[in-house]
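Changelog-adjacent note: as of this version, every example in the card shows the full chain rather than a window. The one below runs 141 residues end to end.
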Amino acid sequence: MDITDKAFEAASQRAAATRKAFPAAVEVRYDRRAARIVIVLASGLELAFSPKHVQGLEHAHQAELADAEITPSGLGIHFPHLDADLYLPALLEGFLGSKRWMASEIGKMGGKISTEAKAKAARENGKLGGRPRKTKELKAA
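Full-length structure tokens:
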């Protein structure tokens, strides 16, 4: 596929606009004590988050996170052992994975939340018989 000068110029302008809108990473490290990835931005802002909440890093071991690299643009973080990448503009916008993955994570969190509406629905369901009670089985001697 040949890239035209016009397409190249348009891509260059988009990249420049992105670099202008988002500060570049100047440092990345894995903090073993806190079990967090720490990214320091050129603006002075430090981001720290658990890899368990990031698509592609959720099952990573400490050794696989320790050698993270900043991409040449400064807008990405690469994890060579995992062949995984983080794009800082997306990270700063609150997306740590694809839309589908994020939706599943949000769904998991929502299922854990206890509200009065959920409690009321559970009580109503209980009046209808609810979930069968667990019975203790006697072990054969």
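Structural remarks: The mean pLDDT is 83.
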